[in-house]
Amino acid sequence: MPNALTDSAAPAHQSYPCDACGAEMRFAPGGGALICDHCGNRQEIAAPGPWSNALKELDLAAALSAQLPIEETEQRAPLKCPNCGAEVVLEGDAHAGKCPFCATPMVTGTGAQRRFKPRGVLPFALDERTARAAMTQWLGGLWFAPSGLKDYARKGRKLQGIYVPYWTYDAATRSSYRGERGTVYYETRTVMRDGKRETVQVAKIRWHPVSGRVSRAFDDILVLASHALPKHYTDALQPWDLSGLQPYSPAFLAGFAAEAYTVPLEDGYDEARAHMDAVIARDIRFDIGGDRQRIHAVDTDISNASFKHILLPVWMAAYKYRGRSFRFVVNGLTGRVQGERPWSAWKIGFAVLVGLILAGALGYAYALQQGAL
Ligand SMILES: [Zn+2]
Ligand SMILES: [Zn+2]
To answer: Rounded to the nearest whole angstrom, what is the distance from the C-alpha of residue 48 to the centroid of ligand 2?
Structure first.
């Protein structure tokens, strides 16, 4: 397997010196360029070749049997989080230290590993300030969040930009199926109710055996390639508009962290297959038609299965508050926010109390008006 090879000579990260002053440059969200915070120099990122070729899918069967050319892989030595297991590569002058996902200090990993190179990257469109504003607004709307946390979020550490690893899968499927089509009909029956005879309509289903074929071309089935973030977080960041994917260049990552994939290609494919099977079952039900459908057997041929490894941009904050870890993630493209919402028991208690007092006061006013007091 390509990702089982190790080589301790691989670099931990690349450097992007400014050609004007030599300071470290970083990728500027919202544009295809590196900027130098020291002297303001700007360098466009050169596209690494024709787009259609650069973003082409790789053959899945060849990859699974480790037949892919070595150029499709790269060796990196990621830092490893001993708590959540995230493996993170830092580009340029991105700061090492704490794990971006759980705020635990990271340690040097077991050495360089050979992994599939990303094919595409969706560069950050929102800068840190915009992302933080989106998060602050989201938090500000949560009246029940503890004030201490809001303050922390407002003036606390900066959000960290991290590229999260995904697999995408394409495949053409042809499925033949056997099943049954159900047609609803009604029978009139006579029943006794309260000692009287009544006629009622009873729904019944007549089943007919059917068989047929359906086919579909799947494009870019997206599968999260890491376990560092709970799936409900990353699911909530969807939808991702993949039309902005750029051919991978490490320069897009300058000044950011990139998580290395930890879900193997074949495990990701299992998840993609489950998604495909669900879509195929829906296609078959539609093909069977009628009022009800039963599926007894499906035989699916898959051809042209291919994959890409891509990186998607997420701004995130992970911190500990009163002994608990909290996380916020912001889609680096759309600004959509998702996070854990700690509620303040004090504020909730206070709100309930105010509600009771108001209800009491209203009741008192009502009684006065009625002349009862
Ligand atoms: Zn410079
Ligand atoms: Zn971690």
So the answer is: 32
